[in-house]
Amino acid sequence: MTQADPAPANTRRSHDREILTLAVPAFGALVAEPLFVLVDSAVVGHLGTPQLAGLGVAAALLSTAVSVFVFLAYATTAAVARRVGAGDLPAAIRQGMDGIWLALLLGLAVVAVTLPTAPWVVEAFGASGTAAPHAATYLRISSLGIPAMLIVLAATGVLRGLQDTRTPLYVAVAGFSANAALSVALVYGAGLGIAGSAWGTVIAQCGMALAYLVVVVRGARRHGASLRPDAAGIRASAQAGVPLLIRTLSLRAVLMIATAIAARLGDVPVAAHQIILSLWSLMAFALDAIAIAGQAIIGRYLGAGDTDGARAVCRRMVQWGIASGVVLGVLVVAARPLFIPLFTDDHAVRDTLLAALLVVALSQPIAGVVFVLDGVLMGAGDGPYLAGAMVVTLAVFAPVALLVPALGGGLTALWWAMTLMMTTRMVTLWLRMRSGRWLVTGATR
User: Fold this and answer.
1) Which of 57, 115, 240, 320 could connect to 75 by a Cys-Cys bridge, CB 3.0–4.6 Å?
2) Out of the domains of life, which is the source (predicted)?
3) Segment (H or E) for 180
4) Residues in CB range of 245: below 8 A, 6 or more apart
5) 3 pLDDT exceeds 50?
6) What are φ and ψ of residue 95, in 5° steps?
């Protein structure tokens, strides 16, 4: 062994510690988020089928409305991390405040649109006559919490950029616990029905936003950063978010097309597809946690002008992504007898599920690379390339997916098309990573 050997090993261990320190709490926070809807479903489900159906419609609409603005977290993380790397904490927090002000403005705009149009939107979404009134009630009330939800996204980005993923975990757990208690108290204790569940969500989200704001404001005062809205800064945050919005909408289009194709295949395939999609989303949380670590770490390295460090940690995170994907794939195959019965007793659905699930398991290492490189390029502020790459991916996926029912293919063929989609993403992201064009240093890109 040469004397040069310990240094790379020490560097790898240092990167591993850094990745785990950020990724593990990020994973916990990500898992806590869908528990809001799960708790509401459990509480409202005992009110009756129309109420539960109404919640399902409203929750889907609300989730879509908020997820479209996830760029508030991504863009803010990258921008703040760059300034942290450059050693300018006041500017980092000032940048974060711009993102929070943008979140508030966007949230108020969404509320202004949602309140008067809720019944029409619910009807357009296909809610039944018995479920529609409950869906409209839940959507109208819960929309009042959208500004808080978007502030939570932006403030989460601020803290991630500051290399802090523990605080978002604590806030998410507290918010979930408060939502659970409030839902039970307001739905049954106060007798408010589905409206009580919506108010519980609004109050919990507002509490989370307030907790984040307290943390950010304290940091701003400690470092002398201004809290006032700055038009130029807000505009810059919006401009940085547009490419990521395009990326998110393109990804949403992929998932919507896949579900629409599955529905055309019949009731059994679409039921199996929903189960697989739920598992796919759960596994995505684990991989997305590494991507979040990538956003924060890469932004900091590039802000500090350390391109060699950025390349090295990128390589290490790709290794983490591949290894995590292999582990997840093996777990899916090994645990099939345990989790499939939890979802369905229908043998036709189970039989349809099995072959497609093997395709999903095989694709997890690809997904690991995709999530990691997505996070790396987000951390580098390479939004325009990510937008273009996702549009190209959509253009490749859509015609192939549409051919599945035309050629008599089933659910397994559809998930091979999804694997093609992920492979296309991997290729486009890998080419960008290899080019080095994302390695733009400095406090701003």
Assistant:
1) 240
2) Bacteria
3) helix 166-184
4) 68, 69, 71
5) no
6) -60, -40
| Residues 6 or more apart in contact with residue 353 via CB below 8 angstroms | 272, 275, 276, 340, 344, 411
Strands (E), 158-240: none
- Residue 359 to residues 78, 80, 170, 211, 354, Cα–Cα distance (Å): 33, 38, 36, 42, 9
Instruction: Report the alpha-carbon distance of residue 130 to residue 223 in Å, rounded.
Output: 55
Classify residue 86 by its DSSP letter: T
Give tens-digit pLDDT for 111-151: 999 999 999 988 887 777 888 999 999 999 999 999 999 99
276: left (phi over 0), alpha (psi -120 to 50) or beta: alpha
Measured distance CA(201)–CA(222) in Å, rounded: 32
Q: Which two tokens stand for residue 414?
A: 């559809």
pTM equals: 0.89
Beta-carbon contacts of 54 under 8 Å, excluding residues fewer than 6 positions away, are: 122, 127, 131, 132, 133, 134, 135, 136, 137, 138, 194
- How many Cβ atoms from other residues are within 10 Å of residue 336's Cβ? 16
